[in-house]
Design goal:
Layout: H1 3-7, H2 18-46, H3 51-74, E1 88-90, H4 95-104, H5 107-126, H6 128-131, H7 137-159, H8 171-190, H9 193-197, H10 199-212, H11 220-224, H12 242-271, H13 277-297, E2 302-304, H14 306-315, H15 320-334, H16 337-344, H17 348-371, H18 377-395, H19 405-412, H20 415-429
Antiparallel strand pairs: 1-2
């Protein structure tokens, strides 16, 4: 093997020739770009932003994702940044709660809650090893499974055209959404290499073209957008609201633990070793710090991207400089308003058709984590009760109508908070000596 190729598999190897490194960096970009911009598009719609505001939110989120990735790649080990080959991007885990906050209050409250959530993550990073025992795979799997379930209504709403759309539920919206979903599904199951990896991106492109035949695409915003723009400090404001902050604090604690799992999967899959305590501590602190400056720059909450962990594990390419090319491309995209404006022209039914498979994948990832544990009566009780109470209360939010408004906001806006709390408590108090068996049927 040549020195150029060998450098790809060395964490601190020099940057190989672009002929080797660029396709690998692009592979990471196409795997995460849709997930990075879709939450911003959805939240801008919920918050009622105009075209310029939507473009700015997408720009800020892309720029902050790029800077967060660079911090993780090249930070100070054990202090800030894991210095591992991980990619950061806007996380779907916060989407349901962000939508509720944006609908009730506004974007400023999201960024205030995100800032506090970043501080919570930093504290967890400092005590990562001690707190990790509270979140075994059974608990994180239950939470991730519930996150996936909580996003299904969002996908269906978008497939039907998006709330507020006068054509909501029309056959045209459903036709475009199903066409997009079919393209994504076919490429996922029959595609190979880059085509399979970029299935969602290609599906959105195909759905976008198809939707144009129904007059759903308006490119006027692209013509009006500028060519270059730097992010601004607090472009949407920062306000603190108790219930929003409490909900985000719990979500950030959960995501900090999930980041430990992603970093562990990266080192085990790509480097054949466990992450060191310094790497985990620095990674979680970097996660918290990057979300603080993201809140200050108007970028939505970011987290480690599991699909990119999968790429590292399968290719064994761990060169940090290769992944930094991905961050640089992400940064360049965020500094060009015309690119962000083009993304805002994607019809909501196209996004719904593409993201429903993403949300399904999130739920199944959680199910896989759960299935790794013995399906004992104790474990099935934890998973079943946590998901039932979380999903049940969020679907019947008026069940908490007699409580103070902050209780409804924290516990009814998203099933994740209740599911996480119930799962942690049950895991701590239920006896573990149950013989590993389910009770007889009918008992």
């Amino acid at each position: 093997m040549s020195d150029e190729r060998r450098a790809l598999f060395e964490i601190d190897g020099r940057l190989p020739k672009l002929g080797y490194s660029f396709p690998l960096a692009l592979q990471h970009l196409v795997a995460m770009i849709v997930g990075c911009v879709t939450p911003a598009i959805i939240i801008s719609s919920v918050a009622g932003l105009d075209g310029a505001g939507s473009i700015l939110l997408i720009q800020s989120s892309l720029v902050c994702a790029a800077l967060s990735t660079l911090l993780q790649l090249f930070g100070i080990k054990g202090i800030c940044g894991a210095r591992l080959p991980v990619i950061m991007g806007v996380s779907f885990a916060y989407l349901a709660t962000m939508g509720d906050i944006a609908g009730r209050f506004g974007l400023a409250e999201i960024f205030g809650a995100q800032l506090v959530g970043g501080l919570v993550a930093i504290v967890i990073g400092i005590f990562a090893k001690r707190l990790q025992k509270l979140f075994p795979p059974l608990i994180t799997g239950t939470v991730v499974f519930t996150i996936g379930l909580s996003l299904y209504p969002t996908a269906i709403t978008y497939m039907a055209g998006g709330s507020g759309n006068p054509m909501f539920g029309s056959w045209q919206n459903w036709l475009v959404a199903i066409f997009t979903l079919v393209v994504v599904t076919v490429l996922n199951h029959f595609g190979r290499g880059m085509v399979k990896l970029a299935s969602i991106l290609i599906g959105i492109a195909a759905g976008y073209i198809f939707s144009a035949f129904f007059g759903m695409v308006d490119l006027s915003a692209v013509g009006e957008a500028g060519l270059f723009s730097l992010p601004r400090v607090a472009p949407f404001g920062i306000r603190f609201e108790f219930s929003s902050t409490l909900a985000f604090s719990i979500l950030f604690a959960i995501n900090a633990v999930q980041a430990i799992g992603d970093m562990s999967a990266t080192t085990i899959g790509g480097m054949d070793r466990e992450p060191s305590s310094d790497e985990l501590r620095g990674g979680i602190i970097g996660f918290g710090l990057s979300n603080i400056f993201s809140a200050l720059l108007g970028g939505l909450p970011n987290a480690t991207y599991s699909q990119n962990v999968g790429i590292v594990s399968s290719t064994k390419v761990v060169n940090r400089r290769v992944l930094s090319l991905t961050a640089i491309m992400l940064l360049a995209a965020g500094l060009v308003p015309k690119f962000s404006a083009l993304l805002t022209t994607i019809p909501q039914c196209v996004l719904g058709g593409a993201t429903v498979s993403v949300f399904a994948s999130i739920a199944m990832t959680g199910m896989k984590l759960v299935a790794m544990q013995p399906m004992s009566y104790r474990n099935t009780s934890i998973v079943g009760l946590s998901a039932a109470l979380g999903m049940g209360v969020s679907m019947v939010s008026e069940a908490l109508s007699q409580f103070p408004e902050w209780v409804t906001m924290v516990f009814a806006s998203s099933p994740v908070v209740i599911s996480a709390i119930v799962a942690i408590i049950l895991n701590l108090i239920l006896p573990k000596e149950d013989g590993g068996q389910l009770p007889p049927s009918g008992t």
